[in-house]
Amino acid sequence: MMEFALGLVVGVLIGAGVVLAVVALRGRGAAREQAAALAQMREVFAALAGEALDANSQRLAQQAAATLDGRKALIDQAVQAVNERLEQVRQALQRIEAERRQDFGHLASAVGSLTTTAGKLHEMLASSKRRGAWGERMAEDVLRLAGLEEQVSYVKQSTDAAAGERERPDFTFLLPNGLRANMDVKFPLERFKAYLDAETDEGRAGELRQLVQAVRNHVRAVAGRGYVDASVPTVPYVIVFIPNEQIYGLVLSAQADLIDEALGQRVVLASPLTLYAMLCVIRQAAEHANIMRTADEVLSLLGEFSKQWGLYGEAFGKVGQRIEQLRDEYDKLAGTRTNMLQRPLDKIEALRSSRGLTSAGGE
Q1: N or C end: fewer C-beta atoms under 10 angstroms in the chain?
Q2: Where are the beta strands (DSSP E) in 257-298?
Q3: Contact, 241 vs 187, CB < 8 A?
Q4: How far apart are CA 362 and CA 235, in angstroms?
Q5: Long-range contacts of 172-175 (CB under 8 A, 24+ apart)
Q6: Which residues contact 191 (CB under 8 A, 6 or more apart)?
Q7: pTM of the complete model
Q8: Do residues 131 and 189 touch, judged by C-beta distance below 8 A?
Q9: What are phi and psi of 150, to 5 degrees?
Q10: Which among 162, 157, 164 is positioned nearest to 135, based on CA atoms?
Q11: pLDDT for 267-314, tens place per residue?
Q12: How many CA atoms lie within 13 A of 352 on its CB side?
């Protein structure tokens, strides 16, 4: 733009100089010649200005094109970077969506499985027979996990027993020294089912109180069944098995002193974990008692062996004494008695030799 202005000024100055020179040479001419000269100057000026404008416009167009090309390249690079970033974001979104669908599928499967399990649990709790079978099955699993064997470490009274045998304990543990420990597994699960079925907080609170009271009544009933009997003999406590840790924790959270109340009636409340701990202690005590009983038997056998060994030593000593006596008798026969008999024979042999007699059978 500056070059265009300078060219225009130079053109104007040149034109003005030419006009001044013509005027100075010719002086004042006719008006017509002046007008023609002015018109010619205008044409020349216009031509020069047009050429200058065309050249300047061309240069400006070239500069603008170069600038636009550079900016276009930068814009293209920026657009490419944005497209690449958008592609990465799109792939990340696709991956997240795929993972979300997979996780949602797993969640749906887990929820379905949980719903099925909850339905089965609800169905099981609705039947008194199934509730008893569930408690018995849970107890058997704990006994098996603790390493106890039926008819060896414990005996079981099936829930299908006759009505006249209902007062028998569900499980009886065989302890060392002829002791026994009884366990009841008929826990009042119907109250827990009612607690689960409650739809409001007030309803659940009321059912929880009913559950605690049912447990208290069950403890009182078990304590009065004669499961603790010194004539059998049994240990001075009976075990009441609660077949679920959640129920155990729920009851104790609602009535923390229920354990002490049960112990006062010689009843021990046991969840699966606490029952497992008890059984491990019982098994170790039984094994220790067996080891001690075996050790006592070994010591008794050692005492009997020591007695027999003493008798053997006495008999062996007597035999030795007799052998010594026989040896003395033998030495006497081989020594003194033989010598006493040999002397007369030697004299007889000497006498015969002196008389020239030969022995019988000689030549």
Answers
A1: C
A2: 267-270
A3: yes
A4: 104
A5: 173/148, 173/279, 173/282, 175/235, 175/282, 175/285, 175/286
A6: 207, 210, 211, 214
A7: 0.48
A8: yes
A9: -65, 145
A10: 157
A11: 999 999 988 988 888 777 766 666 666 666 666 777 777 777 777 778
A12: 11
